[in-house]
Amino acid sequence: MAVSRRVFVASAAVLAATAGMTAPALAAPPDPRRGRIPVGPDDSPEDLVRKASQVRPTAGQIAWQRLERTAFLHFGVNTFTGLEWGTGDEDPDVFQPVGLDTDQWARALRDGGFKLAILTVKHHDGFVLHPSRYTGHTVASSTWRNGRGDVLRDFADSMRRHGLKVGVYISPADENQYLHGVYANGSARADRTIPTLVDGDDRTPPRSYTLPATDYGAHMLNQLYEVLTEYGPVDEVWFDGAQGHIPPDKVEKYDWDSWYALVRSLAPDAVVAVTGPDVRWVGNEGGLAREDEWSVVPVQEKDYGRTDYALSYDAPDMGSRDALVAARPVADYLQWWPAECDVSIRDGWFYHADQQPKSVEQLTDIYFRSVGRNSVLLLNIPPDTEGLLPAVDVTRLREFRERIDRELPEDLAHGARTSATPGRVTVDLGREREVDRVRLAEDIRYGQQVESFVVEAYRDGGWSEVARAGVVGASRILLLPGAVRARRWRVRVTGARGAVRIAEFGLYRSRV
């Protein structure tokens, strides 16, 4: 699929006249220190909009948003017990993926159009897919491969070999450590030395860290240290906020500040999601973004530095002017916190033989309602008990990629004559062409500014509207109700927070 990246700059003054606003200042150059801007209850609505227009993503967030399609691989003891949430007391010997082939995973994901894959290195049951020094509930305690198996090693090597980036999910919850009196034991936070060397430990760490943590927080820090120093570069570290099935009065307050600090030091290029400061959960497990999905949203800082929603995680509006005002009493910052849309290709997150993958039509709809709405799709494809991605799922991934390629074939605007005037971009295709898909993107290095826009075609001697929508961000795809035939096309911004830079104005005729 051809992707154009032509950059057009709309001057703030004329754009403001188009949008009926006071002219904002020209956008500041990219500044990674402007990823979050403090706000308070005394900020006026105008202050909030001005500050929102100044928020900028980091280089890592920009690179992450360009991935578009990422994969999740839920794999562990649950694969063999049939559970979705394990209990922590499983016999490690149940883990027997005798046909494990992580190269097959990587080939299937690459051929399906995915750019990054995240492995469940540890789920809530606490079973770890590498031979950790800090727990016996690992692959090393299974007879699989005579106790010398290391799924994480195979996974990381295979993904890189086939050109995919590597992500790791390490669940904060740990039923096994609860059973051993470490998780949710009420211990106080104290300075801990990471890594904590154990008997027979032959490591000579080039640097150690002193970080505040509970007993379990230190356990997590040590596991993070192993994963982030022994398996090559990691591009995404994925946490959720699960507590597991422990009694409700036995809550473990996670040491988010220390975990984030260690990740930042050991994997500086990784984004931290979705209980993390770089990427947020979209708020559902259906893979669906909001119609207008903002990357700049109000946040609170809670529980030892955890980045949290100022509004409800499933609020229908996360970043509009009204949302900024609604969050004003509790928000600490406006932050670049783009959405990740997670969904499983099957009903469950782990493999179950009686389930089948979603249809191509379902996956395509999810694509347009995630990637097409300024979000990144995170699609889970669970390996089976052999250690393979099921053949029907592999076929479906290929069919999905082929379908998207037909939905968005060559960009008809690529190489076309283009002109930019304040607040609008016009494309002359050279001759009349049929268009039924429009793709837009802002240059998000300068923030997210567009609040509303229209797409118009020149027909019968004048411009006529063919579509209108709200936000753009890193990716906005519009599906026209029918093909429109015209030579000249334009996008006209009708509302914005600051100077708009359109990075992409793509026109397509689907082949579906």
DSSP helical segment count? 12
The pLDDT mean sits at 94
**Class from helix and strand fractions:** alpha/beta
Rg (C-alpha, Å): 24 Å
**Distance between the terminal alpha carbons, to the nearest Å?**
14 Å
Largest sheet: 8 strands, parallel
General form:
globular
Helix content: 10-25%
The neighbouring-strand order within the major sheet is 9-8-5-4-3-15-14-10
Low-confidence stretches: 1-30
The number of strands is 21
Sheet-strand content, in percent, reads 25-35%
Characteristic key phrases:
single chain; 512 residues; alpha/beta; eight-stranded parallel beta sheet; 22% helix; globular; disordered N terminus; GH; TAT_signal; hydrolase; EC 3.2.1.51; alpha-L-fucosidase
Report on the architecture of this protein.
- The protein is of the alpha/beta class.
- The protein is 22% helix and 28% strand.
- The protein is built from twelve helices and 21 strands.
- The strands form four sheets. The protein has an eight-stranded parallel sheet with strand order 9-8-5-4-3-15-14-10, sandwiched between helices. Strands 1, 16, 17, 18, 19, 20 and 21 form a seven-stranded antiparallel sheet that branches. A four-stranded antiparallel sheet has the order 2-13-11-12.
- Strand 4, helix 6 and strand 5 form a beta-alpha-beta unit.
- It is globular.
- The N terminus is likely disordered.
- Keywords: Glycosidase, Hydrolase, Signal.
- This is alpha-L-fucosidase.
- Its EC number is 3.2.1.51.
- It comes from Streptomyces purpurascens.
